[in-house]
Amino acid sequence: MIAATQSNHPLAMVAGREADRSFLEDACNRIRTANMRVTKPRVALVEALFKQEGPVSIERLHQIVGIKSCDLVTIYRCLAAFESLGLVRRSYLHNGTCLYELTTGHGRRYHIVCKECGRTDPVDFALANDAEEGLRHKGYTQISHVLKFFGVCPSCQQSSVPHREQSVAVTPIS
Fold first, then answer.
1. Which CATH class is domain 1-107?
2. Which of 48, 108, 109, 130 could form a disulfide with 64 if both were Cys (CB 3.0 to 4.6 A apart)?
3. What's the predicted TM-score (pTM) here?
4. Which of 84 and 163 is assigned the larger pLDDT?
5. May I ask the CATH architecture of the domain 108-154?
6. Of 3-7, 26-30, 107-111, 145-149, which gets the smallest average pLDDT?
7. What is the pLDDT at residue 24?
8. Do domains 1-107 and 108-154 have the same CATH topology?
9. How far is CA 153 from CA 73, 112, 134, 156, 159, in A?
């Protein structure tokens, strides 16, 4: 017998602050508006993305959501659908790995990604937003841009061993 406090509704499993719940309701409404079903894997994926500080890989999302809760193919399909809805934004690491980040609830955010460890830190960069606004004034629509920052974080710089110059003797061929 199911207790009266239990529910099969996907959002019933979401616990937390009212703002989190409001955000999830908004995301679910966007999914419904696109004539898609609001399923437990989709809600879990949106919730996992919401809790991240920066962009996250598909493999990491799969670990967060739970391997038993949702298979990797479902994650790929959900993210592709969310991207077409404008619910997530895709970016790339310097090695080509796809990263995803929610667009709802946050303004456009930029990050610097460490080339060594993958750590992401936010970057305040208003110039790109100003450029988009200028292009709108010129009459452009559906404007998008890609702006990526990569570097080596301070932690990786301290932990790496300094590279010593190696001298190579060159013997001329006679």
1. mainly alpha
2. 48
3. 0.60
4. 84
5. 2-Layer Sandwich (3.30)
6. 3-7
7. 84
8. no
9. 32, 9, 33, 5, 10
